[in-house]
Design brief:
Layout (H helix, E strand, L loop, with lengths): L6 H4 L3 H8 L3 E5 L4 E3 L7 E15 L5 E7 L19 E14 H10 L1 H27 L2 H16 L3 E3 L2 H8 L3 H13 L3 E4 L2 E4 L2 H7 L3 H14 L2
Antiparallel strand pairs: 1-5, 2-5, 3-4, 3-5, 6-8, 7-8
Keywords: DNA-binding, Transcription, Transcription regulation
Organism: Granulicella tundricola (strain ATCC BAA-1859 / DSM 23138 / MP5ACTX9)
Protein name: Putative transcriptional regulator, Crp/Fnr family
């Protein structure tokens, strides 16, 4: 499937997909645009077509940690469709991208009336929730270098690229670690010849080696997402 499309929408029957796309707007999303705020019903729903959105939980002291990662495989506001409860998370652009945007209220009506759309979105939300659970366990149980390798691979998968830009500060926030320890972990991966990291620019040099350096969580979260698109 070519870049610039959304994998979730691509699974819909062509005729229905065309009618849905006619009600959407293609937009550009630069870093660090917020797509939704905690405790608020979103104004829009975003089907990502490139780039990466981070779903982050922030504490009262301002510290945050990433609990979700969405690229063109999904719908950023899928969790908001499940009920009236408001989410405590924030969704913002982590890597510059694009999306197909639709009024959230309009998508909610479509979600309620279309069984095929509802079934597909529910499957995607289930997969994202399973990924969230795996990431939570990973952040608690695995070493920083393993987690960093896993996270870099997840970003690469969603961008479909081995080259992207992320600052040390951003990396630290996403994996819930101090900047100094992230610097050490990234330096170790670089000395091993797995990545090149300079002034926020990351290039994966040895993907197979990076997968070996990552914890067991990477193949689990990768397969959870890929299985979703092999079904149906």
């Amino acid at each position: 499937m070519a870049a610039g499309t959304n994998r979730l929408l691509e699974k819909l029957p062509a005729e229905y997909r065309t009618t849905l796309l006619a009600r959407m707007e293609a937009i550009t999303l630069p870093v660090p645009v917020n797509l939704y705020e905690p405790g608020v019903v979103p104004k829009y729903a975003h089907f990502m077509t490139s780039g990466v959105t981070s779903v982050v939980t922030f504490m009262e002291d301002g510290n945050g940690v990433e609990v979700g990662l969405i690229g063109r495989e999904g719908l950023v506001e899928g969790m908001h469709l499940l009920g009236a409860g408001l989410l405590p998370t924030t969704g913002f652009i982590q890597v510059d991208g694009t999306a197909l945007r639709m009024s959230f209220a309009e998508l909610r009506r479509e979600f309620q009336s279309s069984e095929m759309l509802r079934t597909l979105i529910l499957a995607e939300v289930q997969a994202q929730n399973l990924v969230l659970g795996q990431i939570a366990a990973c952040n608690r149980l695995h070493e920083l270098e393993e987690r960093l390798a896993r996270w870099l691979l997840m970003v690469s998968d969603r961008l479909e690229s081995d080259h992207f830009t992320l600052t040390q500060e951003f990396l630290a926030e996403m994996i819930g670690a101090r900047r100094t320890t992230v610097t050490l972990a990234a330096g170790s991966l670089q000395r091993s010849g797995l990545i090149e990291y300079k002034r926020g620019h990351i290039k994966i040099l040895d993907r197979e080696g990076l997968e070996s350096a990552a914890c067991e969580c990477y193949p689990i979260v990768r397969d959870l997402i890929e299985t979703l698109y092999l079904l149906g």
